Every structure is written in structure tokens, then in C-alpha cells.
Amino acid sequence: MCGIAGFVGRGDLDVLRRMTDRITHRGPDAEGLWRGENDGVHLGHRRLSIVDIGGGAQPMWSACAKCGAHGDVGVTFNGEIYNHAELRAELRALGHEFQTDHSDTEVLLHAYSEWGDAFVGRLNGMWAFVIHDRARRRLFGSRDRFGKKPLYWFHERGTFAWASELPALAEHPNCPRSLDALSLKKYFAYCYVPAPRSIYERVWKLPGGHSFVFDLDSAAPPHVTRWWSFEIEPDSAPTADEWCERLRTALERATQRRLMSEVPLGVFLSGGIDSSAVAAFAARHVAAGKLNTFSIGFTDPSFDETSHAKLVADTLGTSHRHETLDLEKSRELLPGLIARLDEPLGDGSLLPTYLLSRFTRQHVTVALGGDGGDELFAGYDPFKALRAAERYTRFIPRPLHAAVKVLAGLLPVSHANMSFDFKVKRFLRGVGNPPALWNAAWMSALEPGDIAELTGSPCDPEEIFSESIAAWDACKQPDIVDRSLQWWTQLYLQDGILAKVDRASMLCSLEARSPFLDIEVVDLARRIPHQLKLRNGETKWILKRALRGVIPDTIIDRPKKGFGMPIGRWLREGRFDFDLGKTPAALSRDFISKKLTAHRAGKCDERLFLWSEWVLAEWATQQSSISNPQ
User: Fold this and answer.
1) Most exposed: 96, 235, 263, 528, by fewest CB within 10 Å?
2) What pTM value is reported for the model?
3) How far is CA 184 from the centre of its chain?
């Protein structure tokens, strides 16, 4: 796992070095800097050595006649290609000669030279890379299907630049540094900034499943295209038992692929279904007692799940380690953690994810996790609300909606995780919108009217939630469960869950891998009918059935529990220092103060908004202190 940065245009090797220095945590083992003498291309790389430790230095250049003249094609690459051995064998049969023994980076050079830009469709893995084609005078960049590995870019004042993280990109003197007004609104609508936007104006994320081409001669803005999209295409022919067998086989193969490593490796083990499944399948391919598993717990029993993780570890016979932490002391780490984020993220599980990554990194360099299982198999509580929302909108006249919300507002406020009043009020917030916005509204920090008041400017729901509408409309299936699966997988997974896990793990120089996002598993999941995922109100029905006999029934049958913190209680008790002087000038401090006062008085639950605002303010304060020479 690594970090990449580069540019064409203004700047020199000192600028490139400053850019790569900002992502040293992504690659603490080695640095590579390169400058083209004739075209002004600068390529930078920070390496976390995982595969082919001795032969995988970057930037890497072609050295095979099949790739053109020596050094015609070069690459900087962040990620892992899990089918690189199969691709290498295929390319050798076509006459390609490799200089390394088993570098997946070198496979990219040969695959690009043989199959052109479309070669990315052959890759099974996670990646963000930029290829410099010196013969064709072009740059080709790509990001994996779900955007597990980040890639930001800007094109400004004759400069095209890119990097794995915003702070690295911001080290370039031409990089815009002003907060984007629309992105701020979207942040409070989603609790993250959805691709292709970033928190900075005129700075962009390359979305997952997209590529770009930058022509060095024209120097026009890069041409961005989508090369893959998640499409739900249900197949009703196989029986439930047949789907279960296929699912078990695909998950085991996906997990086995992700065991490739020349450094110590382990598994995040929360005691939930998804991570337990990954651990179980990994244990089949690691010597007895040699699989490392990791969990963290808290002294507060309501947030501790270590007993479930231990049950799985004991059943599988893994070498299990767990760490028990004091939540109150852990909270003190938050300002420093948020200051190191490249973009604000309003996910309340950021801190425990970071703590788990930090603990795991003390023992291994690579960790497998269960990310993607909830999105692919309808694992979240909002899926249970979909049919109720349909009935509510059908049978409750719209003029009565406001009165129902007023009545719900009389429910006593509880700051327990997913409390009854929280669920009811969230439900009613969502059903006041068209179905395309239900999921987004259920997860948002603020409603559009509140966002308008916070920012002092009009807020069009269709503009704020344009990504949600696009994801909903992208699904060709008419049922709201399929359309919701599209939303969670295409939008929330990429810019919420995967961004959080990538940043939290890479801040600890830990590589996180996701077997559920293997293309074989994904292709299978998108063809399983939704009736087998959400069945009679039970989430993940087909996955649970497939895992009977693989993991303990106790784990399969226990209620889902989130990986979070008592943010609502902390906010009410004044555990966070709300210094309104840190709030970006574009936001209304009176509005924030009003929401904070109401929350502390127990009149309403504003945890999502106040947490998202506090994260943004802490992040913005740190970023404004970074110099940006023009």
C-alpha cells in the first residue's frame, strides 16, 4: 500500500517532495521521485512494502520490447492487484518479458501496453494509479471499482496535479484552497463530501470506477470517463441453496486471494457476521493457530463487543489479541485525529476504527475486514423501514405529515445508540421526501431547510442530493429495495465507509483489505434477488443462511450493533469544546448555537449535525494553519 502524487506544469522536485512528505504515513518504507526532462511530468511515490519487497520500487518503468522502447511507460501505483499472478502468466504467453519475480506493479505496465486503457476491467483489486505514456505523450489514471484507494486532482493555471490525499495536493502552489460552498452543503446533507466533489472548490475526486486521460500536448483539462458501474441484475433461476453454495465459494476464494503478503497479516474481528465470516474463511488457509485476529473493546459495557469476538476466535482457533480502552480517555485523541484527516468525515465510528487500526498495526501490516457486506446484502436498519415508508406515504394523507412530526417531537429524547425516538423521528424526516431521497434523508445531518439557514443561501434538495437521485435512477429495477441497494453501494459505501476505513488505517500505515468487495463476490451479490437479502423484515437473510456452519449461530442470530461512540451523550454533557471562532465564516454561528443549546437542554437530538459541525471546525482550523504560497 502506498501514496502517490505528481503534477505537470509549475513546480520542481522540491514541490514534489513536499507533496510526498505529506503522505509519508501511507508509505513509510521508501520514497521515489522522478522528473521528466522534456515534458515537465513529475511523479512521486511513498511505499508501504507488502508484495515483492525487494523489487517493487516506484516509479517503475517498462523494460520490455512489447511495451515499446525502454522506459516508454512508467507508473506510480497505490493498491493491490489480487489476480496479478494470473495476468502475468497470460501476458508472458503473449510474449511479455518481466524484470521482477512477482510485482503486481509491473503487471500494470505490461497490461496497459498490451490491452490499452480497457485493461483496468481485467483487474481484481483496489487501486489508484497514474501511468505516464511517454511515447503517446499522455497520462492515464484510474481508480478501482468502489474507490477503496483515493485520488484527488486539480487543473489550474496551466498545472494538472494529483495526489492520494488533499494535504499533499495542497502543497502544490497552484492548488485552490477555498472551501467550496456547494460541497459544504453536501457535507451536512451526507456527513461526507460525495465524489466527484471535494471540500475545496475546483479540486476533484476521481470517482470509483472512473479513469482519466490527460494529453500533454494540448494540456486541456483531463478527460474523465466511467469504465465500470454497479448494476443490479437479479437472476431468479438459482434456488436459495444454490446461491448459498456459490456465495460461500466466492467469499472463500476472495478471502484467500487477500492473504497474499510478505509481511505479517491479520483480520479485524468485531464479532459481527461479516468480519467473522472473513476470519473463518481465512482460517481455512492459514496453519492452525497462526491466523492473527484483533478486536478492541471499551470499559463502558454498552459499547464493548469483545466477548463476541472472543467466541469467534476461540471457535476458529485464531491467535487473538484484544485491547480494552477507556472511552473517556480515547475521546482526548479526537482533535489530533481530525486534524490529520484530508477531508472532514462526520462518521461517529471514525475514532474506534482508528483505535482498532492503531492496535492492529502494533502486530501486523495488513488486515482483512468485513466492509461491503451490509451494502451488498441489505444489512442496515433503514432497509427494514422501506416497506413501512411505502405504506405510510400511501395511506397517511400528506397534509397530516406535519402533525405526525409534531407528535413525534413530543417523545422524550434518548441518546442511546439507535433509540426508539431517534428511529421514529428519522423515519418521519425521510418519508417527507420523494423515495429517491429516503435513504439520504434518514442518514443526513440536516434537512435542506436547515442547511439553507446554516449557510445563509437557498438550498435546492435536488441539487444537494443530486448524487442520491443519480444513484437511485441508475438502478434499472423498479423495487425500492433494489434501488436502495444501489444507493448504499454506489454512494454511501464509497464516500462514507471506505473513505473512513482508508484514512483511519493508513494514518497508522496499515493496509486494509475487503474480501466482500472482490469482483467475483460483487458480481454474485448483484444478481441475487432482493427477496433473498431482505426477507420478511430480516436483513442479510441469504448471507446468514450461507454462513450457517461456517461461523457460530450465536453470531448470526444476535442483533446488529454499530461500531460507535456515545456522541449524543458527550455533546449533551459538554464534553466537546464548541469554540464557534473555529467555525468556517460561511456558516451561521447563531444557528449552531441554537442547535447546541437545544441538544444540551434535552429538547431534541442534534448529535449528527453537532458532531459533523465540530469535526468540520476542528479540521478547518488545522488546514488554515498550513501555508499555501501562491
Assistant:
1) 235
2) 0.93
3) 19
